[in-house]
Write a structure and sequence with these properties.
Layout lengths: L11 H16 L6 E4 L4 H14 L6 E2 L4 H9 L9 E4 L5 H9 L5 E16 L6 E2 L1 H8 L2 E3 L6 E3 L5 H4 L10 E3 L5 H15 L3 H9 L1 H9 L7 E3 L4 H10 L4 E5 H6 L4 E3 L1 E2 L6 H5 L6 E9 L9 H8 L2 H4 L15 H12 L10
Parallel strand pairs: 1-2, 1-3, 5-12, 8-9, 8-10
Antiparallel strand pairs: 3-13, 4-10, 4-11, 4-13, 6-7
């Protein structure tokens, strides 16, 4: 998978922002790396931070789980010691976020793809075993679903999984999942919900004729209590699943991998969520994970350059690295080498245009 690079042009406003930032750096100091963002990337980032703190002369970086959207907002607020150095994200940065960053002087952004993760739909050990299709997921969770007539949409009437698909358990639909600020939520609606939505031909056709309506139908989750926003803490979802064996939960594969004695993943389109199935692309709900760093902070914030190199070292993210023991799916060798080189050279990478 190739990685395209581009330097984001400095606007006049950005130049002013950088001048102000230099003054802030000169007046006040911060002697540790500050990281915010994705709850999915959080455990990986925390392990790297702990290793880095133990093996270097620098302080252990401070890591906060704020969700991808919340983290990128904080990241884009400005340059200087009052703002995060790194934002973890379980989705690519959006064009609107890049523009917000630039307007606040955050221009040369280093995009680092760290590996891959699967999104699982899991329930407690001892509960029913679910074999779901992406269409089942869409029909269970969409705010509106196809009616009997061609082109008709109706308010979601389904209350049990058996209503959705006669082969599924006669159990009330209750799904615990992340809030809109979460990158896992963004990826879930794009990969699982939309993947099932376009199984209906006339809806699939909307993607060309009315992209906004298509996205509205496919990405809008019902708000009648069936889907329960459980916050950014994926460990809390695991705990709630144990307390309610009938509920299903949505979170990253790494949390399933670390809680195998408590929860089990549903098969999606006939594929079990496993390390190998995500690595080879056969598991249908998988996505890349990222973090973003400010070039302006490197060599100003003590330890930032070293933290970036530790995260992108073979001992961390390699096939035999310590992050794979935590559930991170490594990228192919060529891709890892390209990203590591870009990090070493502090090369701003091309950013998502979505």
């Amino acid at each position: 998978m190739s990685i395209h690079r581009k330097v984001i042009a400095l606007t006049a406003a950005a130049a002013v922002g950088l001048t102000a930032a230099a003054s802030v750096f000169a007046q006040a100091g911060r002697d540790y790396v500050y990281v915010v963002g994705s709850s999915t990337v959080y455990p990986f980032s925390t392990v790297v931070a702990e290793r880095f703190g133990r093996s270097s002369e620098f302080k252990t970086p401070k890591i906060e789980s704020t969700g991808s959207g919340g983290g990128l907002k904080l990241f884009c607020d400005g340059v200087g010691v009052d703002y995060p150095d790194v934002a973890n994200s379980s989705r690519a940065i959006k064009r609107s976020e890049v523009e917000t960053c630039a307007s606040n002087g955050v221009t040369e952004i280093i995009e680092v793809r760290i590996g891959y993760d699967g999104i699982v739909v899991a329930n407690a050990i001892g509960g029913d075993t679910y074999e779901l299709s992406r269409e089942d997921i869409f029909l269970a969770l969409a705010k509106e679903v196809p009616g009997e007539a061609e082109g008709e949409l109706i308010e979601n009437p389904y209350t049990t999984w058996k209503d959705v698909n006669a082969k599924l358990p006669d159990v009330k639909i209750e799904v615990l999942g992340p809030p809109p600020t979460s990158g896992t939520r963004d990826a879930f609606v794009e990969l699982a919900m939309e993947g099932g939505c376009k199984a209906t031909p006339w809806i699939a056709a909307l993607k060309k004729s009315d992209k906004n309506q298509y996205k509205s139908v496919c990405h809008t989750i019902r708000e009648d209590g069936v889907f329960v926003e459980a916050g950014e803490n994926d460990n809390l979802i695991v705990q709630k699943l144990q307390a309610n064996p009938d509920a299903l939960g949505i979170f990253g594969f790494s949390f399933l991998d670390q809680n195998m004695e408590k929860v089990k993943g549903s098969l999606i389109d006939g594929v079990e969520p496993t390390f190998d199935a995500i690595a080879d692309g056969s598991y249908p709900i998988s996505r890349p994970l990222f973090f973003y760093a400010k070039k302006a902070h490197v060599d100003v914030i003590p330890g930032l350059r070293g933290f970036l190199r530790e995260f992108t070292s073979e001992r961390a993210w390699g096939e035999e690295g310590y992050l794979s023991d935590r559930g991170l799916i490594p990228m192919p060798d060529e891709e890892r080498n390209a990203v590591a080189t870009a990090v070493r050279d502090l090369t701003p990478l091309s950013l998502a245009a979505e």
